[in-house]
Protein 1
Amino acid sequence: MLHILEKSKKFDNEFFDKESKIRIGKNTKLEPGVVIYDDCEIGENCIIGTSAVLKSNTKIGDHTIFGTLSTTEGNVEIGSWTTIHSQCHVTEGMKIGNNVFIAPFFYTANTPKISAGKFGYPNTTNDPRFPPSVADGVRIGENVGLAPGVQIGKDSLIDMCCLITKNIPPNSYVRADKSIVGRIIK
């Protein structure tokens, strides 16, 4: 695991740590407090925000911003030209496409049930994992949650404060409403 950075670091050339298998592309900036676990890859011209955590096998494309205090839980793929703002949670196994915008306080889950009294890592309950996914060109507002296994279709817009519990077709506009959460506007 790469130690926590105490000050900002910009990689003018590509960086590769053979022991931990961490690859960081040129002109990528890591802000103070970033934690990067083994087997992570970060593309060129990226910014990883203050105190962000990238767990094992996270892959981030070029020209991507991963915000302050945001976390990936590992085995995550994030495309190029994507912005994930501060305080976002990206669950294990999730895929986020290219040219995606995600506002602050985005949260996701991959476990459909919670077992009483059992917790920890690895999966002590042997429950199946269903990571959600976000396709290319999606825009997501503040404080949006994705239930396990939900797929957001290409070029969709999700308004703030939605809880998405069903798949969203491509080119959809989803907004929260007092009576219906996550309804699709034609």
Note: The radius of gyration is 17 Å.
Protein 2
Amino acid sequence: MCFMKINIKILIMCLLVSSSTYADVYVVIFATHNGKTGHAGIAIDNYQILNYEKEMDNQVVNRYDTTKVFTLTYFDLWPKSDSKSTLLQTLPAEYNLLPGSSSEPTITVESLINKGLPHRNGYLADGILKIKTSPTQDFFLKEYIKQLIDEGIPFNTRTHNCTDFCLQCINYLTDWDITAKELILTKRSNTPNKLYRTLVKKSGVEIEKDAGRLVKGSFMRERVIEGFFRRT
């Protein structure tokens, strides 16, 4: 996908940043467990690009560096309405880019673990996986995600759910071309639990919060069967 709108100034700064500078991308998993549908989101480190002057060979030259500010930009996808009657329908999508403004609470790894999603109070992350990146990778990934949001592809539990959205972002970032499909009734779909189990096997992925046994179960057992008996 081609980017139509790119902040060239920021891009040049990113390219000039020392290769020792690092950032992180986090895959945030809410387990499908005990009747809960589960969810997946993606968060990207924020940082400041600093410009300073340095004297070299009797000349003053501009140098750029980055400083992590230990906050995150969080992205995810939900259906605007969600009920059993619309389970297999294509629905209007709710794409989130959070915080949406400077007045909203900041998001950190700790807040995802201890407070949960700002737009779903009390929905605490069960597992968080970390992928090491660079500021340049982060820049392009954020631009890519913003374009996905602008496209506004409708939500579909089978073909374009929260896990599908995260996989698009992860595969763009890493060139892995991975899937996280499991059999649900007669078709295979990407699910949060399978995404977690697939990613932890990849080289370069670190566990920030271990979901443990919460992501061991299949969607059929944990959501469809458990959900039926729990009436959720």
Note: The chain has one domain: 8-230.
Protein 3
Amino acid sequence: MRDLAFKTLRNAALSYWERQSFFGPVEVAIIGAGLVGLTAALYLKQRRPGWRVVVLERGALPSGASTKNAGFACFGSVSELMAQEARGDLQAVVAARCEGLSRLRALLGDAALDYRPVGGYELFRHEEAELAAECRNKIGYFNELVAPVVGHARTFHDASALIGRFGFAGVGTLVKNEHEGSLDAGRMMRTLLARAWAADVPVLSNCAVEAIESSAAGQRLRLANGVTVEAGQVLLATNAFATELLPELAVKPGRGQVLVTEPLPDVALPGTFHYDHGYAYFRQLADHCILLGGGRNLDFEAEETTAPGLTNTVQAYLENLLHEVIVPGRQPRIDYRWSGVMGFGPALAPIIDWVRPGVLAAVRCNGMGVALGAGTGWQAARKLAAG
């Protein structure tokens, strides 16, 4: 009988205060404390200030890419846009990315983000002269396409004259996007977390959700730690991890690997830089370190995983790019290596839809989470507030 009592009261480790203040019934439970989940929480509290909202995060920090991305405030290089044009309404895609960045900057402020409008550059090595020529020929076309979105007639232009200034080796062409920038992903997430708590939204870490079930209250979330949370509605904002709870969603993971060098104060790389159709990217950080990431296109199958990790293939590719192109002839010490997981799918637009009664999904940012995150959160909040 005693054993049965303990099984029934498996949440007994929670105090009365913890249950009432953190895990009590809520109007909305948000699964995932990344960029989408936290912006959705803030926008929802603006619309429904009296609602009780809680954010549940499986890790000590957001587990996907929100604290692991490169901090690019970008919407697409010419070669990326060329490849993406066949997958849908490209002007609408660019508009969604630009709107998301505008919402993020308006919500948090440029100072909190350390946002810098440094522009974005796409590199083409000498052996990619044919692709470079094709992209240069498309500059006028894409300038006209994005002009109604960005409000400027000249977004892209040939910046090859700057190659020598940057000190790159083996690069024959640079194409610049004037309207991209960079931000500090860590400061972004710290600010979002602080704003959420200030808005009376508890953000609870190490609270992995194992199941979403229908209940009398609407939805019941069963957590790995034995706790249950009753919610009227649920927002699933776990991006690449979405199919663990909703297998029917068209989302596949894609792991991105990153490295950061020791500080290189004699190197000056103002801007964000893209290479290999956007599959490789780098920038110089505020402390003069160089961040370099990407390479999942070397083995899509191996990188289609939610597991954190590094591979020799990708890390060697990144280091070769660093040594041969970015800082030629030098081999700076690598101080950090990590990976983050993004969510991809057949369409470029995110999924922002009711997938079950009372369960809304806002996932699949296709590697553009910084650009799409706040816009996706805003749309999710609007649907939840109306639901």
Note: Residues 1-9 have pLDDT under 50 and may be disordered.
